[in-house]
Specification:
The chain has 442 residues and is of the alpha/beta class. Helices cover 45% and strands 17% of the residues. A hairpin with a 2-residue loop joins strand 4 and strand 5.
């Protein structure tokens, strides 16, 4: 990616009412004039005015947004065509003929970053807004796009820079009677605490960005498919009293406790001579192995509840919640004691569902009812925060021992790790990797 080519790409998906073609670059206005024609011409005098005209044979609107007051910081022209594939293709083809190339994934936002419109944490938040799978995910992404995370990191970065300068001053002027800061150790401790608070948001950050893989497992007829339908609010899985009805994994998307979730209903785990059912059981085991959270359903009304538990104890799935279902049939029954989270429900009567969702949210996000966090870091930021957190106690130890050069070096490295999150100190190949995950046109 570079910042001097003229680039164009669709900024909307094809098939809606409108297709928006975005053009950005030093010659965006001239290219827009060659592609779009209207009674009132695109010009600086009519900047940010939506004008009616034509792109080829299609009636289209156009707007010119001069830099630096545009999304990318460069001159931008947007063409608002009809939403069909042919109209969008025509507009793009004309833009390419007029001097544009197709934008790479994330290249518009890359230019916004390079031109100082966004820092790197905000640029990543653009992608989070686009892919938000729940209202909570959208709120957190919007706050970070507005700079909530960036401001916290900028403050920490500046404080680390001051402490680094303090260490280097003590090294350079050891005999001078200067006004040394007596609170360096306390300030380092405060920064460690604040970085730790940011680092602790990685769990909810991952759940909001990537969603939670929730697998429903257990023996045949434990109520897995019925629970899936209840959680979704509609009939997605076939439910019958015949054991082994679910032969393959069944997946669906939903939102539980404000977290985006992919639910996978699995074939009941049992020995079978049916080759198709055996294939389904094998797929079930693979899904369980990769689950973020597993609801292991146990039939509370089974003749021997211990048999229900045996397979679960053998598999030992990660982040497992034991779910005794059908308690309405045996309300007074003593059930085996189990380690870990245990919830009793009746899918038929919709009892215990709130407790089950509380347990799910606690397993997935660390809280039964996750409140909107101020910020939530992604995996890249969490890794950099972890590295910075490992360096600062080392810096404090060197400082207390009078090893100011070593303390300054550790603080400088920690400061660079924090700077990488916002893009102050990031390497070009890291930028290419980050923006390549964006969609074309953003």
């Amino acid at each position: 990616m570079n910042t001097f080519d003229n680039i164009a790409a669709p900024a909307t998906g094809v098939g809606g009412a409108v297709s928006i073609i975005r053009i950005s670059g030093p010659d965006a206005l001239a290219i827009g004039r060659r592609v779009w024609h209207g009674r009132t011409p695109l010009s600086p005098e009519h900047r940010r005015e939506m004008l009616l005209g034509r792109v080829g044979v299609d009636s289209a609107l156009a707007v010119y947004m001069p830099g630096p007051a545009s999304y990318t910081g460069d001159d931008v022209v947007e063409l608002h065509c009809h939403g069909g594939q042919s109209a969008a293709d025509q507009a793009l083809r004309l833009a390419f003929d007029a001097g544009c190339r197709l934008a790479e994934p994330g290249e518009f936002t890359f230019r916004a970053f390079v031109n100082g419109k966004l820092d790197l944490a905000q640029a990543e938040a653009v992608n989070d807004v686009i892919s938000a799978g729940s209202e909570l995910a959208l709120k957190v992404a919007a706050r970070q796009l507005e700079g909530a995370l960036s401001r916290k990191l900028e403050s920490i970065y500046n404080e680390l820079n001051e402490l680094r300068a303090e260490c280097e001053s003590r090294l350079d002027f050891p005999e001078e009677e200067l006004a040394w800061d007596p609170e360096v150790a306390d300030k380092l401790s405060g920064i460690v605490r604040r970085l730790g608070e940011l680092y602790e948001t990685r769990g909810i950050g991952g759940a909001l960005r990537d969603g939670v893989e929730l697998v429903l497992a257990g023996r045949p007829n434990a109520g897995k498919s019925s629970l899936m339908n209840l959680l979704l609010g509609y009939d997605r899985a076939i439910v019958t009293p015949i054991p082994g009805t679910t032969r393959d994994t069944v997946e669906a998307q939903t939102v539980l406790r404000n977290l985006p979730v992919r639910i996978t209903d699995t074939a009941g785990l049992r020995e079978s001579s049916d080759p198709i059912e055996r294939m389904g059981v094998e797929r079930s085991r693979k899904s369980i192995a990769t689950a973020g959270v597993t609801f292991w359903l146990l039939d509370a009304s089974a003749p021997d509840p211990e048999d229900e538990v045996a397979e679960m104890e053998r598999v030992q799935p990660a982040n497992r919640i034991a779910v005794w279902n059908k308690i309405d049939l045996v309300p007074e029954r003593e059930l085996p004691e189990l380690s870990g989270p245990v919830v009793r429900i009746s899918v038929l009567r919709e009892e215990g569902v709130d407790q089950l969702l509380d347990a799910f949210a606690a397993a997935a996000a660390g809280s039964p009812r996750p409140a909107p966090p101020d910020v939530a870091v992604n995996a890249r930021a969490a890794r950099l925060l972890e590295e910075a957190l490992a360096l600062l106690p080392e810096a404090a130890g060197h400082f207390s021992d009078g090893e100011f050069e070593l303390a300054a070096a550790a603080i400088r490295t920690a400061m660079n790790r924090v700077g990488e999150i916002t893009g102050k100190t990031v390497e070009p190949d890291i930028l290419d990797h980050i923006f390549s995950r964006f969609c074309i046109g953003k």
